[in-house]
Automatic annotation (TrEMBL), chain A:
Name this polypeptide is given: NEDD8-activating enzyme E1 catalytic subunit
Originating species: Aspergillus heteromorphus CBS 117.55
Pathway connected to this protein: Protein modification; protein neddylation
Catalytic activity: ATP + [NEDD8 protein] + [E1 NEDD8-activating enzyme]-L-cysteine = AMP + diphosphate + [E1 NEDD8-activating enzyme]-S-[NEDD8 protein]-yl-L-cysteine
Stated role: Catalytic subunit of the dimeric E1 enzyme, which activates NEDD8.
Keyword ATP-binding annotated: yes
TrEMBL record, chain B:
Catalytic activity: [E1 NEDD8-activating enzyme]-S-[NEDD8 protein]-yl-L-cysteine + [E2 NEDD8-conjugating enzyme]-L-cysteine = [E1 NEDD8-activating enzyme]-L-cysteine + [E2 NEDD8-conjugating enzyme]-S-[NEDD8-protein]-yl-L-cysteine
Entry annotated with the keyword Iron: no
Protein name (Swiss-Prot/TrEMBL): NEDD8-conjugating enzyme UBC12
GO molecular function, one term: ATP binding
InterPro entries: Ub_conjugating_enzyme (IPR050113), UBC (IPR000608), UBQ-conjugating_AS (IPR023313), UBQ-conjugating_enzyme/RWD (IPR016135)
Lineage of producing organism: Eukaryota, Fungi, Dikarya, Ascomycota, Pezizomycotina
Pathway recorded for this protein: Protein modification; protein neddylation
Organism field: Aspergillus heteromorphus CBS 117.55
Gene3D superfamilies named among the record's database cross-references: Ubiquitin Conjugating Enzyme
Pfam families: UQ_con
Record PANTHER family: UBIQUITIN-CONJUGATING ENZYME E2 (PTHR24067)
Protein family per UniProt: Belongs to the ubiquitin-conjugating enzyme family.
Length: 421, 137
């Protein structure tokens, strides 16, 4: 039961956490224990932008008390319409720090630890300290990185090593929220082919018959720049470069009598800016944070595992369970341990792979993350790597290093962690 | 067809050489640089012709107009699909999707003249005042 000294801010939250509901798990024990577990859950928010601001605010208002946030960006004037933790005076300051300070000021008792930098700057030890990770990112690359890092961290003997990943994403009026239990459920890499790549205009349209102002901008950016300023590498943050593309596009648009090019549009096309809509961010952030609350407290079942939201024509949402891909390069086959003699040559090792019961690969090719050890195809690569066959394993790899092995008989790569005898 | 890897440890950057054994471009050796970025297969590979050649679907800067390299790329496609598509461009140059408009006009209006231009350009000659690189095998 909620005691009478519950601060008014939390009375509603505590009602949910101190009573069983029709959907709560039979084994769940409501009450102070649950509340303590929520307050002590260390949670990481990746991204302090449009989604990140909402997520931080929501988590703080949902009772999380130990929140970390990581973002490499600084605040730009164009963020202020929706990234409500930032003010005009904050322009140029790091998003993570300003957002953390703002929420700490507004919600008493919450501690928010910012880190200004890239997610890649941090290692497994850093990510291991959290109970849950929530992503409000704008790039697929960063999602893939954190996903594969979290999958790689899973140690089946230590349940604490499994970090639920809650991923939100928006694009205009569309959005998505998903819950990923690394190695147990479908991961970001499994779902990669669900994302349609950005629609692109055929190069020939751009080169010959532009129909829209955007085609002229693409022409200036991709064709005129290459012809006339080949030696300058294009920088989309350099205003002089954008200005050049803008005037080249204007010129071309005049030839084809296409009106409507503006500097801002040029910037949008060149930088691939998708209009961000504050309300979509709010919807998706709400979905991800209520999942975080449910996972941290077990008070209700969580999302399994993908919710899509389409708001561009009325509203349509659909929730389904994305399946794990058996051949997912990240979570489909975790590295198996293989004990080898470091003085064995690569050639002999390859032969043994055909005989070892745990491998049975007849025509393997292999590489480490950085190095191609031996590749049978294409022939030129075979020739270039053939000399490695005579080298000893210890000359090629380190003790405990992981190798990826492919074989024409299988469509997937096998991963082995080689430990020296 | 041949692939060369300037650095065998970096299998994301390589050169593809296409040597058509039939069609108008028979006898040539055409080099393309392939750059596969970290976002592959979400992003298509970036392909450029490293020679200056006379082809309706390849401009003088080496840009290639092949639908699956841009607007029709899907993450289920692979390098094989791209390579087959590139070979096809040399068998059947496509005048309706031009990047080199003059070459496309030649192909559409006078196929025989186009063929002659292809031979001239492949030998290192000029077509309509534009000098081309010698690309014979």
């Amino acid at each position: 039961m909620a005691s009478p000294d519950v601060p008014p801010r939390w009375t509603h939250l505590y009602k949910v956490l101190t009573k069983s509901g029709p959907f709560s798990d039979e084994d769940w024990v409501p009450g102070p224990e649950t509340i303590t577990s929520l307050e002590s859950s260390k949670i990481l928010v990746i991204g302090a932008g449009g989604l990140g601001c909402e997520i931080l605010k929501n988590l703080a208002l949902s009772g999380f008390k130990d929140i970390h946030v990581i973002d490499m960006d600084t605040i730009d004037i164009s963020n202020l319409n929706r990234q409500f933790l930032f003010r005009q005076a904050d322009i140029g300051k790091p998003k993570a720090e300003v957002a953390a300070a703002f929420v700490e000021r507004r919600v008493k008792g919450v501690k928010i630890t910012p880190f200004v930098g890239k997610i890649q700057d941090k290692d497994e030890d850093y990510y291991m300290q959290f109970k849950i990770i929530v992503c409000g990112l704008d790039s697929i690359e960063a999602r893939r990185w954190i996903n594969s890092t979290l999958v790689g961290m899973v140690d089946f003997e230590d349940p604490e090593s499994l970090k639920p990943l809650i991923d939100g994403g928006t694009e205009g009026f569309k959005g998505q929220a998903r819950v990923i239990l690394p190695s147990l459920s479908s991961c970001i890499e499994c779902q990669l082919d669900m994302h349609a790549p950005r629609p692109a205009v055929p190069l020939c349209t751009i080169a010959t018959i532009p129909r829209q102002p955007q085609h002229c901008i693409e022409w200036a950016h991709q064709i005129a720049w290459q012809e006339q300023r080949k030696d300058d590498s294009f920088d989309s943050d350099d205003l002089e470069h954008i200005g050049w593309v803008y005037s080249a596009a204007l010129e071309r648009a005049k030839q084809f009598q296409i009106p409507g090019i503006t500097f801002q549009m040029t910037q949008g096309v060149v930088k691939n800016i998708i209009p961000a809509i504050a309300s979509t961010n709010a919807v998706i952030a709400a979905a991800t944070t209520s999942e975080a609350l449910k996972i941290a407290t077990s008070c209700n079942p969580y999302l399994e595992n993908y919710m899509m939201y389409a708001g561009e024509e009325g509203v349509y949402t659909y929730t389904f369970e994305a399946e794990k891909k058996p051949d997912c390069p990240v979570c489909g086959n975790l590295a198996r341990k293989l004990t080898v003699d470091p003085n064995m040559t690569l050639e002999v090792f390859i032969e043994t792979l055909g005989e070892r019961p745990e491998a049975q690969l007849k025509k393997p090719s292999m590489r480490t993350e950085e190095k191609t050890l031996y590749q049978r195809f294409p022939p030129q690569l075979e020739e270039q790597t053939r000399h490695n066959l005579k080298l000893k394993l210890k000359e090629l790899i380190e003790d405990g290093q992981e190798i990826a092995v492919s074989d024409p008989a299988y469509t997937i790569d096998f991963r082995f962690r080689l430990s020296f005898q | 067809m041949k692939m060369t890897f300037p650095n065998p440890d970096d299998i994301l950057n390589f050169t593809l050489t296409i040597e058509p054994d039939e069609g108008m471009y028979k006898g040539g050796a055409f080099h393309f640089s392939f750059v596969v970025n970290q976002n592959f297969p979400h992003d298509p590979p970036k392909v450029k012709c490293t020679q200056k050649i006379y082809h309706p679907n390849i401009d003088l800067e080496g840009n290639v107009c092949l639908n699956i390299l841009r607007e029709d790329w899907k993450p289920v496609l692979n390098l094989n699909a791209v390579i087959v598509g590139m070979q096809f461009l040399f068998l059947e140059p496509n005048a309706s999707d031009p990047l080199n408009k003059e070459a496309a006009d030649d192909l559409r209006l006078n196929r025989d003249a186009f063929k002659r231009n292809v031979r001239t350009s492949m030998g290192g000659g000029s077509v309509r005042g534009v000098p081309y690189e010698r690309v014979m095998r």
